[in-house]
Amino acid sequence: MSDDTQVPFLTQEAYDRLAAELEHLSTTGREEIAKRIEAAREEGDLRENGGYHAAKDEQGKQEARIRQLQALLKDAKVGVAPESNGVVEPGTVVTAVVFGDQERFLLGSREIAGGTDLDVYSEQSPLGSAILGLREGQKTSYQAPNGKEIPVEVVKVETFTG
Q1: Rounded to an integer, what distance in angstroms lies between the CA atom of residue 122 and that of residue 54?
Q2: For 70, how many CA atoms within 13 A lie in the half-sphere containing its CB?
Q3: How far is Cα 77 from Cα 63, in angstroms, rounded to an integer?
Q4: What is 7-32 written as a DSSP string?
């Protein structure tokens, strides 16, 4: 696999949505959490203050999300979803028969999928890495975490339209 497959792909819409979320969390979100922590701190004994501990936990989760978004947006390749030419690549919607069941999913980051109901598989996942670069009609298999060999046939590859 080339280094290019390790770079997350985002549509411009997904990038803008995530950048807006990062901006909100980094500014207003941090201010709101700081106010809640301060208000809970003023209630007294911090060891038995459920509101304080809840706000600190939320602050930790929010800071983790901020770091995740910063890393994703810094490294992301932004553009239009690749035009489907029958080859599985990041940002395409794949219909495949996986272990006898037909599935339709997006190959890439769940951040791209936004509000769609598509399942998402990373191109680094066992399934994603097995089918990356395959054409419609091609078959392969991959090893599941339990060691079982899972057969896969790529049925259709479509352009992701959001």
Answers
A1: 32
A2: 8
A3: 23
A4: SPEEEHHHHHHHHHHHHHIIIIIHHH
In the block, tokens 């890393």 appear at 71
Look up residue 44 and give its DSSP letter. S
Round to whole Å and give the CA distance between 161 and 11.
10
Q: What are phi and psi of 47, to 5 degrees?
A: -65, -30
Share of the chain above pLDDT 70, in %: 91
Name the pTM for this structure: 0.63
pLDDT in the model for residue 82: 64
Q: Which amino acid is at 24?
A: H
Q: Specify whether the CB–CB gap between 117 and 102 falls below 8 A.
A: no
Residue-wise pLDDT for 18-42, tens only, equals 899 899 999 999 999 999 888 888 8
Range list of H helices, 76-137:
110-113, 126-131
